[in-house]
Structures are given as C-alpha cells and as structure tokens.
Amino acid sequence: RARSAPLTLARVRKRLALPQGAAGMAPKKDPKKDKQAVPELVTKYQKREPLPPQDQPDASEAASNWKAWRNAFALPLPEWDDRAVNTAEWKPNETETLFSSTNFSAKSLPKPFVQAIGAWKRAPLVADPAAPEEPEPQAQPPLAEQEAPPEPEPKAKAKAKADPKAKAKAKGKAEPESNEPPGAVQQFAGVEYEGPASVVTMQEFRTREFSLVRDEAMPPLCQSIAAQISIVGEHRYVMPSGSFLWELIHPQDADGRPMFNPHGKYIVRLFVMGKWRQVLIDDVVPTGVSTGQQQVVAPLLPSNVLPHSIWPQLLTKALLRVFQTDLKLGMLPAVTALTGWLPYQLPLSWDALQASHSTRYFNCLQLTSEAGNSEARQRDLLAAVAGSQQEGTGGGSAGQSGSGGAASTPVAAKLGGPPIEAPMEFLVCELEADPAQMRVKAGSWCPAGGHEQKTLAKEAESEGEEGDEDGRPREGEATEAESEPEDLDEDDDERRSLWSPSGGEGLDSARSGKPDTEAPAEPKAPEGPDGAEEGAEENWQPRWEEAMPTPLNSRMQEHHHDLVGGYWLDFEALRNACERFVTYIPPYAKVISATLDTTWRDTREGPYELTSKRLLRLKLKSAPPKSRPSSGRKDKAAPQGRPWHRAVILYEPLRADPSIIGNKETVHSLGISTSSILLQSMSHLQPSKPEKGAPEYIHLTAGDPPLSSVAAMSVLIPSGEHWYFSFDDATKAGSVLSVFVDGTHLNMSESSVEFMEPGEAFGHKGIPMTTLEQTEYPAHIGFQIWAKAEVELGETVAERVNAIHLLSLTSDPDVQPNLQVTFLKLVQPEEVEAEARCASWSVETLVRAPLLRLMELPLGAATPDAKTKYIIMLESSSPQMVPSGKFSMQLLLPDYINLRSSQPAEELLRTAPLSSSAILRWKGSTAPNDKGLVLRERLTVPAGAGDVTGFLRVAASGLPGVFFTATLVAQLPPKEETRPRNPDGNPPEPRAPGAPIDPKDYGGRKNWLARCKTVAEASGFEVVVFPHVVLCEASTYILYVEVDPHRGAGDLDGGEWLLELLGSGTVEAGADTMEEDLEVLVRNSWVEPPDPTVKETRQEKAKASRERWLQKRQQARDAELGTPAEGDEAAEAQAQAQAQAEADSRPTSAEEREFEELRQRVLQEPHTNKAIRDFVHLHTEVPPVLDAEDPYIVALDPPLEPPAKPTPAAPPAPPAPPAEAVEGAEGVEATEAAEAEEAAGEEGDASPVESDPEVLARQAFGMVGSAIVREEEVTASKEYWKTMFETKMAEAKVFNEQKGGDLSAWQDSAQQAEYHLDEEIQEQRKELRDSYQKRFEKQSNLREMIKNGERTDVAQLKTIMEEAREARVDIWEADLFDKADLKARFLEAAAAFKAGVADAEQNPATVEYAEGDEEVAANRAQLARQTEEAKQLWKEMKEKKLRVAADLQMEELLEKAAEFLKEPEAEEAPAEN
User: For the chain, is the Cβ count within 10 Å smaller at the N or the C terminus?
Assistant: First the structure.
C-alpha cells in the first residue's frame, strides 16, 4: 500500500485532520506525522476467511467398482476366422481326458426340459445304455481362472490308429513352417477312429439328404429346432458350399466334410450378433428314457435316424449355447443362425403372401404343431423296443448305414412320454387360390388344423379330387390305380403315407416326398465305412453352387416345384391363428449392411466405455427402372411409384453370463434383465431434406422372457440419405446393432449403410459444429462442475435459428443420472458507463435439465442493441464417489439452409472455455430475525484481478424444509455530488478504482439504496444457485438470502449456511455492514458536540420541526371537519346551524340507524380488493345479450290486430216483440251499434300493437316495410356477433397459446423429473419393491405348503402362516389363510384320529362294546368324536380341492373306526305262543 496506494477521500481526510491536543493550531507539514494521524474508516465490516481446500477424495474403491460387472456378462462370441479355427488345438488323440465346455449351464434350460433329462452323455454314445454318464454342464464366470487340463499320458488307453491314406497324403504335401501351427487335416492325419460314430455320413454329405427322428414326446424346444433344421434342409440346392447345416461344424477335412473328434471338441459357425461367429462346444448332450422294461436310452435333442450321425445334436447344442437366455421362449431364431438369412416380417394377407412366394425362396409361418395319437405312439415305441431286443443291439450297437433305408439301420429310440404340442415354423410350399389355401411343411409335423389333401373347388370335384390342375397326380399323392377298393382295408398309417409324405417315422428327405426309409434306387456298389460308394469319389460333383445364386424366376419356380409333401391349411382359418408371416432375405450380393459392435471385449482390463459412433447413415439411391420389352400395344404405361426398400434391424445386447442365470435376484439387482435401443431420425439436420416417409423413431427391446434376447424389426425406407441417432440402454456391457437393407431396387455402387461419429457426418455436410475442449473430469463426490464454456453465435444466427443441438457422451454410464446441463443467455449493453458496468449484465436461464445424449437448447428471444452470449455448463451432483473419466459435448446448428452467408461455418458457432477451477467456500451460522435473513454477504473483486465469472451456490444444513430466495445486488460507487466536501470547502479527490468506500460518501441511506442495482435473482428448496455471475473488476456486490415462510419452514435457529463460488478468480467475502454503518453515522450526528457557530442543537431543531408539523396537521384536520377557528363568531353560528340540520335528518328507528352506520363505515373504510370495492360502490345495469328472435329461425308473423277477447255466452233470447215494436226499435239499435263501433275504434287506437316498429312498418309499407325492419335487425345482429366472434377468438387464441406453452413447459419439467428422482423416493420405491417381493415369496411358500399334500408338518405350516400374515399376504389372497387354517386343523385332527385308531388296534378291549362299562363308553365316544371331526374336515378338504397325503390312508382309517364303533345287533325276542 505504501508503494502504490491510490489517492482516496479517506487519505485526504487523514491529511486534513488535526492532531490531538492541537485545536486551533495549523497542522504541521511533516508527512510522517500526517501519515500517522490518518484515521481508519469507521465501519464494522470484516473480511471472512475462506475455508481450507477440501482433501482429494479416495477414488480407489470407486475406480474398481467396474470389476463387479466384469463377470456378470458373458463374453462376446469371437468373429469367424478360418485360419484360427483350422489351426485350433483339436487334440484328437487325447481320449483319456475329454473336452468339456464351461460356457453352457443346464440351469438355463426350461423346467419341462429338465424334468425329461435322465442323464448327460457323449453324443456318440447316446444309444449305448452302458455308456458312462457325464456331469451336468455348469458354466463358469468368463474371466475366472481355470486350471489347465492335465497333459495326456504318453500311452493312452484308447489310442487311435493312424490312417495310411492320410499319411500318404501328408507325405505328399510340403512340410509346414516351424512357426505355423498345424491345421486340422494335419492334426487328424495320424488318427483313425475305429468306432461307428461320425459327424455326418458320406451319403448325407454328397446328397444333402437326411432324415431326422420325429419324436413328438421331445420337449417343445427340441421339436421346434428339429422343424427349423428340416425346413433349412429343403433349401439344400440354394445354400452355397460351406453354409449347409453340417458344413458349419468344424474340424473339417480337405473336402469340407466335418471330421469326428474323439476328444469331443467342436467349433460351430453360426450367424449371431450380425456376423458369423465361432461357437465352441463339447459333445455332451442330454438323454431321456424310452419305454419298455429295458429302459432304452433315447436322445432329447434332435437326432438322425442313423444313431451314430451326430451333426443334429451338435448343431442343437451350439444353438442352446448361444441362446441360453431364450430357452424358455419355446422357439429360437435358428433359421437365421444356421443360414444367415434375414427375417423380414409382413402382415398376413393373401396378396402379400402370393407376392412374396413368387419372389422369395423362404417364406414361413409360426404355428403350433398338432400332437399325434398317444395309443398309436405307444404301439410304435413297444415295437421299436421289441425290434431292438430281437436284434440284440440295445438300441445302439448296430453299425450305421449311409442310405438311411438299409436293413442294417437300427430302429431309432424315442422318448416314452405322451405327445406334446410345440410352436414351430412351417415352410410355405404351395398356394392355391380357389379356394384360398396353402401347403406348409416342417418335416413330418402336422400343424394344428392341417389336412393331408387340399380342398378342391365345387366345380372341380367331379374331375378328380386327388389330381393336380393338369390331371397329373402330385408326387407323394395316391393315384387312381393305387386307390383300389382292397387298399381301403390297409392300416391308417399306411394309407396316410400314400396320401401324404408326412406320415412316415422320420422327417422327410429334402429330396423325395416319401420317407427316407424308402431310399431312391441307386447302382449297387461296395460301400465304405461311411456308407459311401468307393468308386464314386472321382465322379461325384455337387449340385449346389459355390456362391449364393441370384433369385431368378425360373430358379424360384424350380425350387418351389421340388418342395413336396406337407399339409394343407385353409387361409381363412389360418388368419385367426397367425397375424404375420416371415420371409427370409438371403445374404447374396444385393444386400448392404452395417454392424455397430459396442460389446465389452474379451480382456476387460478396464471399465466399459461407450463408443462415439452413434450415427447411422443410410444412403439409398434407387436403381433406374428396367425397360420392359414392347408388347406392340399403344396403351400408356401406368406410372410407377417411388421404390421402398426393405430393411431388417437386429438388436442383440450382451446378456448375463450363464453362471448367474439361475440367480434371478442377482440379474435384476444388476439391472441387466432388459435393454432397449431407440433410433431417432436426425435427417432434418441435413442441408438437403430427404424424401418423407421414413420412420421417425425405431424402438427395439430385448430381455428376459417373454422378451427375446434378439430384437428384430422390419421397416420400409424410401430412397435418399437418412440419419438416425442411436440411444442404447445397454450401457453396462454394450450390444450389437445390425442393419441390413435389401438392394433389389438399389444402385449398389452408390448406396451404403454405415455407422459413424456425428461430427464426421456433420463435417461432410458443412454443418456448423463445435466441440468443447474439456473432455476429462476428476474423481469427486458431491457437486462438481465438469465443463463450462461461452458459446458465441455469428451475426444474425439468433434471428434465423430458434435452437441449437447438443450431443453428449460419457465414458461411465452410471454417472449419467447425476448430470445436469445448464444453458444460459448472457446479455450486456453495447455501450455503458464504466462505473455502471458491474450492474449492466443480466442472465436468463434457458435450460436447466438432466443431461440427455441428444438435446435441443432454445436460444430465446432476440435482444436488439445488446451483446448476447450463451453459457453452457455441465454439472455433476453425485452422493457417491465418482471415479475419473472422459466425456464429450458437441454443439451444432440444426438449420444450416437458412444460415448460408459469406461467413465460414466455423465462424457461425464458436465456443471459448470458462474456468471454474478457483473454488472458494465460506461458512456461517444462522439466527432468528424479523426479516428471515439467512445471510447478507459482501463480495468484492480486487482491482487488477480482472473480471471473475463463476457459479454461486448457497446450501443450508440444520434447516430442513426451508425455501430460499436470493438476490445479488451490485453496489455502485457513490456519486461525486453526494460525497462531503473537504473542511476547506474544496471537492474531494476522485475515488480510485477498487478503493474502500466510506459510508459517509453516500450522504445517507436513501442515496445508498439508489446506488444498489439488482442484477440476478434465484430461489430454491434448501439450496439456491446462480449458475453464472459476472463479478466485474474493482466492484462490490451484496448477496441477500432470505427464507420464504409461505413456501417452506421459517425457523432459522441452529442452522448453518455454506457459500460456494466456483469461478475464474479470487473474490473477497464478508458480512455486509453498510446499512449498519449508515445507521451509526445517523445516530452519531444526533449526539455530536454542538458547533459553536450554531445556537441550537440538532435535537432542538428536530423538536421544533415536529411541533410545527403537528400544528399544521391539526389545522388541516379542522378545516376538513369544518371546525371554526377561535374568534370567528359567524363561522361558529353557521356550524351550529349545520349541526342542527344534520341532527334533524338523522334516522330515528333502530333499523335505519344501523343501516346508516353500516353505510358510513363502508364508505369510509378502504377496500384492498378491487372487485369488492367495485361491487360495493358501483351499480351497473347489464343489458340482455339477445333481445330479439333468432333471425335464422322461421316463425309466424305477429298479428296486426290484438287477439280477440273471449266473448261471454249470450243470454237466452227474449220472446219476439210485435211487428210494430220491431220497426220502431230499428233506429235505436242502429244508433247504439254505431256508438259501440266508435268505442271499439278508440280502444284499437290505444292498442300496444301499434307501438311495435314492425307493425307500424307493415301498416305503412306492408310486407316491404316488415322486410326492411327485419333486414336491419339481421344486419345489426350480424355486425354485433361478428365483432364479438373476432374479439373472443383473438382472446381465445392468445389464451390457448399461453396455456399451451405452460402445458409444454409442464410436460418438459415432468419428463425431466422422471430422470432425476430424489434419493428418498428411490429408497421408498426400493423398500416398496422389497416388501412386495417378500410378500410374493411368503405367498408362494404358503401356497406351496397348502397345495403340496406331502407336506404335513403342522408347526411348519403355522410358522409359514404367521410369516405370511406379517407380510400382509391377506391383501392379495385372503382365502389362502382359510385354506391354510383348514389344512392345519385337518392335520391335527387326522393325527389325533390316527393315534386313536392305532390305540384301538393295540387294545381292542378298550373300545369293544360292553354294556354298562363307563370307561369303554367314554373311549368309544372319544373315538366317535375324532372320527366325525376327521371325516368332516376331510370332506371340507375335498371341497376346497386340497390334496391329502397318501400315507394318511383316511379311507382305511375310517373303515377301521367304523368297525370298532359298530354296535352288536339286538337279539330277536322269542315269539309268543
């Protein structure tokens, strides 16, 4: 200060002040003495020291929380790699320790499936009842440390022999390099398996013909998979090489044929998660028990009629492994997984089905199969067992046959259970229009309602019901020669096999319409061990192509012609059972696709992070229309509509690991049971708008049953470029989103589908976009500002654009609910005085809401003649520790078309970071006061530090339920004219910027209040914040925080407040005392020593001034009341006369006096309510709204004359007078009649009818006048109602717009509130959920205890009843307790009754009838009571349908009791003689 202190008014006063004891003496010129004599400012203000910085939180525990998720999710399947699969370690010689996969859990199987499992065995040994059993598969956590399998012994017991042919081939090939791992062929070169098992027989491999066992007792899931495998087999010539069923199984030989691995390790190639992937499995499969005494083992999974061909079981095991979370659905997406063909769903209609059938290979319906005849099935099973016993094979020791129909083929074993219906897919083979019907096929399964022969039209019945349209019988249908009368006596099953190929034992061959037991005749040749002809190897050529064939019409017709067999369904009946059908799109060259894989990878060495590629861009350009050959007709071709393109979207989130599937509570607690994704259209952001019609939103949900883990949606998309932004809920471990577009009508070279970063897409289109520089946030707990930036728009942008868009992404999705974004509008005048700059800014909050991944930030109304900037801020408020991470925020201008100007895109939208690293905290206590003031702090920015921008936050503790209102006031420096002059009369020196202000410089409280300007206001519940403040350099601000007692609690006793400033610089804070200092100055001025030059003190002046004011006020009151002044006699006389007149006019009665008092009081008392005042003091007459007839209603004209009065009845006529009298009376009567008419005319002139304008007009001008009057009335009425309508409509429009805006704001706030629930509400919801869960468990336990007749523990039943009663189960099911009480009473009575009968059996004499024996009579009475009570309760148990334990043997006990209680028959008395 001594070095560069500015000259201030205080320093001037210090220099002019006299030293003590030197009154009247001139001051000395010594500057040192002057400096010592300068007094300090008289003020109570004290600087408040800020709190010490908070310690850095320990985030080590929070940083490792992600490890709890690492094992909760299954590892994503690796993508297919031919080289990696071929060089995998197959270990074919290791047969001592067989391979076992740890990725499949038997807990995931549905309950009916588990109940049917008898044992787990190796697939090659399923048919052997003596084969050893394997342990039940148990999945292990994906990253659990597993022990390495033991190394095989040098000499294995079952060492495979070397194949000389394989050795010869190996010798002819070049030796692999030392660093190249051996392939599958090389690993199997020295292996020759001697057993009968194989993956696929040579005949099956070369013909692609197979036959599966049709077992209707298999679990529905297995029946569904078998049907899907069968319909895939129908497309054997359509599927290219390497993609047909068993060709997906590895290891394979050089020809692509799967090789049997004695070690039990296989890798299956399946299309899941949008790509072909590797599925590692073992050959352990479940088995069931067949019928008969021999307990023949039967496979549970789909199996080949050749027991040692295991490819169906391996494929099914791979499907079960992949879709473990969907096994309870009953049907899996096996067709897509086995073929890669994409399911496109369409509403079921005849036209749509015909169109799809003519252009697509693969059309399916999802129907329910029809269970077969149980008795016939039982006969077949017994016959199969008998055949196995006769052959001595035990169902599994015979060799395999490649033909499938040779005599050496063993009879396939089936499960010994009743037939079960199953949901499955049926292939549409043929359509018949008259009547509408279709032929469907799924192996030999029959759909519900299916029939073997098609329904013929009535006019075609006479032409032959069994023939085709051209008179030729279809393959597999009976001809006329085959339908001889003697054939009618054949067995039903045989006739059925003649009519339809669906009646055979095995599934139909894909080649023939007949069962495979009747294989096609082939040239006989010696067969090799695999059932293949040895001499046919060189001449064999596959009939299928290497690549996917193009779907030509000729090829389509040929394919449909080869689809024989199946069952017919009526279309009308089908519509009630099925609403949609599926057409599968083949993955040939005309399909464009893109896959977004965000799954948590294999290593998982760090937490899961979301990807930034969230924009789906569909660029679809239609192919030019094909020119059709001219037909010579001159008809004008019909215009073709714009093409629409079929798209299939698959969403597959990473599911829970199989090892925790059995623990449903863990799955739900982790929040991984359901995931969804939303694709929101962003095409409106493009400079060139695409065609309309594309869906705005595409929503897919996947989860636990009844949902599927694979969510699929079929959509139609028009041509053009379409953008979709993805919002994925699978934020724990990611998902795979796949998009496929059928390119039949696309220009493939100029069309594409891709996922990309939004910034990249917007940059290609030149859309203005900017990214916040700050991308990392530190570890913290509580409140933290992650980012804050100033957004500056180019010229005229705010006038043309209403909002900007915000894209955000965080690396840790768990913190998303705790984030909040604030968007502010900062307005500052262009020109302002230097001293008023601190109060010239204003901030408007445009958005303060939870952060979403895509948000629209409104810009608000334009502010002309002012400099406008926008502030965006990202806040985090987490009650738990948040580990450090990364985030990104991008801003873009949506409507770039309206912004095209000379400015570059980067100048239209810019951001500049704002620092909030300077964190200052102050703390204080609250005390009760009249004003409800919590704090009044003075904030001062020192000179030379620059402007400070920051975030102000005030929170309270110990004050529950308070509502704060805060005001930030800028204190401007005092004006020069209010500052006191120097003692010498000269004006004071100018104030230095930032110098302390002397309270005397304001010249009083009124001047100080005039220099205080409010710059910001805020309010909040227990916390109040100013999101952005601008504290100008060398300025002073005062922060007022008060409580609102009308909106919350008002008690301030024992509370504490915390003031936080997160800003860009240092600020000084302290309790503001300016008002107290000014009050002290005023008080001191009243008691200061009198000036010798003044004769009276200030107190005396004030007293004299008050006396003068009181006298003047009394005179004004006397003049108002008319009281005469003293000495004015005339005025006094006049006043007395006026008083006497008022006394005479006063009311005399009590009622009048009371009314007059009320009237006077009402007139004198002011009314604060304007409506009441107007009602009391004003009197208005409201004219009627409508005082005329409705001009649009036709009514009768009013009469011109008034209605005639009713004439009284005439008296009886007197007798007729003589003729003379009549003649004399004629004159008199005429005179009287004239007088009567004149009187009547006078009455008519006075009639009110003539006063009606319409009547007068009609009398004057007739109907023309009436029309004129009515026209004027209608015109006036029209004008009146038109004016009223326009006015009211304008008011209503304004009112509706206002209310609509309020409603929209309310909806936004309500939606935002859903994402930011209070912790207390979340805790209450958790408690409620837990209570419901507990109640459900207790209800289930009690229900199971009641329904299970074998549970007879009364004490346990009462304990469960008491627990259920405490859990309030009676709210849900009150009668459950009645049943439980009944069972408890029955069990007690039955126990006593059983004991009584047992005692009677041990000592029959105690209950045997004996007359006169009281002890026996008492025992019999007790047993009778026990019997009656047990019998009655047993009857009630039956009525309630409650089961009774079989060991109670109630019927037997009742019979014994009745026997004991039976009384001897009375002896007959001897007959009298």
Answer: C
